[in-house]
Each structure stands twice: as structure tokens, then as C-alpha cells.
Amino acid sequence: MKPVTLIGAPTDVGAGTRGCSMGPEALRVAGLAQALARNNLQVEDAGNLVGPANPGQPPQDGMRHLDEVVAWNRAVYDACLGTLQAGRLPLLMGGDHCLAIGSVSAAARHCRDTGKTLMVLWLDAHADANIGTTTPTGNMHGMPVACLCGHGPAPLTTLAGPAPAVARSAIRQIGIRSVDAEEKRRLHELQLAVYDMRYIDENGMRHTMQQALAGIDAQTHLHVSFDVDFLDCVIAPGVGTTVPGGPTYRETQLCMEMIADTGRLASLDVMELNPACDVRNQTGQLAVDLVESLFGKSTLWRPPPA
Fold first, then answer.
1. Residue 269 among known ligand-binding residues
2. Where residue 276 sits, what CATH number does that domain have?
3. Which residues are annotated as catalytic?
4. Which of 107, 167, 193, 302 has the largest count of CB atoms under 10 Å?
5. Domain count, the chain
6. Residue 303 has pLDDT above 90, yes or no
7. What does the pLDDT read at residue 67?
8. Is residue 150 part of a domain?
9. 188 within some domain
10. Are 23 and 94 in contact (CB under 8 A)?
11. What's the confidence (pLDDT) of residue 304?
12. How far apart are CA 2 and CA 17, in angstroms?
């Protein structure tokens, strides 16, 4: 595994509920760097990026805080791309999920430069495929998937060069259970691979992950964008947009361990952790526990799959 660089992005400009700007520090308090080091990883903390404050303004043309969202994503893009070019694995600590536009765009640019094939696993309760004309809120943390697929403001869709940054076939969404009315139509038009909670209920997490990871090989750059609201809110209350009925602790552990088994994890987001909604940082501690599994922690030593 490549050495890891922690990058904090303390902002909630894309969210409707304030507080996930404190997420990076909550992950640090929960011992993220120490947990990775226990798994024989070289870890450096690059500190926090700097960007504009949350102005708390209403939407304009269906989008709230577009200028601020663009500024933060440019900073994220530059930091993540520089980390990848230095041969390290960027671990972006959010912050709200709009920041994944910058981190995934950086992975896409790096893949074009190095001849790798990008695969994006989007672990989330929400599809995040809205645009300004379909969103009921204007909150841009509900738009990153659309932007990455080339639908949205040009300053965001072209961060990595000509839009789209990512081929639709490269994105696999897991755990989805909250989709806005117009967003359902957009998901159908985009034809993304969406493994929603009904699919997981009917087929189990093991089969779901086998399908989601199908086609991964030695040339794959695997980017995982982990929104903490992917988890059932009974065990992870520290998020701004709770949705009941998510994966259990054991299902999520299996998900993370199967990703680790591929050996292809190359960039990671941990997003939407909101200490203002949490109970004594239990969600932050849970997130750190799960990230450890994502980097190879397991109950027993297991040889890599053939």
C-alpha cells in the first residue's frame, strides 16, 4: 500500500445542515492517523485546506454557494492531484460531499496521465445526481455525481479538463436509499450502476460487492468516496442527513474488507461526518474503525484472493 496523506477540507458550503466543517478534526480526535499507522502504513497529515467561509445564502439558479463550492473544489483538486503525483494515496477528510468533485476529478486526471482505469465506488445513502433544475434544496452536496458525469456548472465539470471527468460506467453506487423525485429520472437517464438497499436486502452484501467490483484488475485505480450516512443512522448518528435502513456494522465491515482484498485502493474520501449531530464522537470512532478495515485490518490473516 502506498503511503497515505491526510488532507482536511473543513467546510459545509455544500450542505444544508451546518457542522461537517468540523469533520476533519473529529477524525483526528478519533485517532485516524494512529489507526492507519497500526496497520503498517506510512502516514502524514498535511493539515487543512483553506477556503471561503459558508455565507449562509439562499440558492441562485437552483444552487447554493456556487462560488464557494468552486473555490473549495479547486483547492481539493490541486491537493489530491499533487499527492497522487508524489506517489502517495490522498485521504480526503470532509467536509461535505460536494468536495468529491475535486477529489474524483484529480483521480481521473491522474489516471489519464498514467494510463490507469478509474473505478469509483460511491458509498452513500443518497444518489447525489441532482442538477440545479431538479434539486429541491439547492444544496450542492447533492450534485457531485452529476457534475462528475458532465452535468453542472462548467467550473466544476471541467476541473480535470474536458467534461465529463468520469465515464458513467466507472461509477458504482452502493447503499442508496434516498433519491429525490426528479433525481430518479436522472439516474435512469445516466444509466449508472446503482446497488440500492433493496438490491442489498435481496442479494446480500457479499454478492453486491462482487458485482460492484467486477472488472477490477492490475490497471485499476480504485477511488472510494465514503459518505458516513451510508451507514444506518442507528449506529452512525453523526451526519446531517440521516436516512434509516442503511447497512449494518457487519455489512459495512464486509464491504470494506472486500474492497481491501482487491489491493487496488488508490484514493479515498471520508465525507459528511458531523460532530454537531454526534454523540461523544461515536460516529467518528466508527468511521476510523471502518477505514482501518478498508486498509486491510481483519480478524484473521487471509491470503489475497487469486
1. no
2. 3.40.800.10
3. 97, 124, 126, 128, 141, 227, 229, 272
4. 107
5. 1
6. no
7. 98
8. yes
9. yes
10. yes
11. 65
12. 35
**Residue 67 marked ligand-binding:** no
Cell readout for 22 is 468540523
**305 within a domain of the structure (yes/no):** no
Q: What is the pLDDT of residue 299?
A: 84
Q: Could you give the CA distance from residue 271 to residue 73 in angstroms, rounded to a whole number?
A: 14
Residue 303: inside a domain: no
At 305 the pLDDT is 62
CB atoms within 10 A of CB 300: 4
Cβ neighbourhood burial of 228 (10 Å; 0-12, 13-18, 19+):
buried
Q: Which domain holds residue 138?
A: 4-294
278 is an annotated ligand-binding site residue? no
Per-residue 3-state assignment (H helix, E strand, C coil) for the chain: CCCEEEEEECCCCCCCCCCHHHHHHHHHHCCHHHHHHHCCCCEEEEEECCCCCCCCCCCECCECCHHHHHHHHHHHHHHHHHHHHCCCEEEEEECCHHHHHHHHHHHHHHHHHHCCEEEEEEECCECCCCCCCCCCCCCHHHCHHHHHCCCCCHHHHCCCCCCCCCCHHHEEEEEECECCHHHHHHHHHHCCEEEEHHHHHHHHHHHHHHHHCCCCCCCEEEEEEEEHHHCCCCCCCCECCCCCCCCCHHHHHHHHHHHHHHCCEEEEEEECECHHHCCCCHHHHHHHHHHHHHCCCCCCCCCCCC
The amino acid sitting at 198 is R
Integer Cα distance of 283 and 219 in angstroms: 34
Contact 159, 102 (CB under 8 A): yes
Interaxial angle between packed helices 249-262 and 197-212, expressed in degrees from 0 to 180 and rounded to the nearest 10: 20
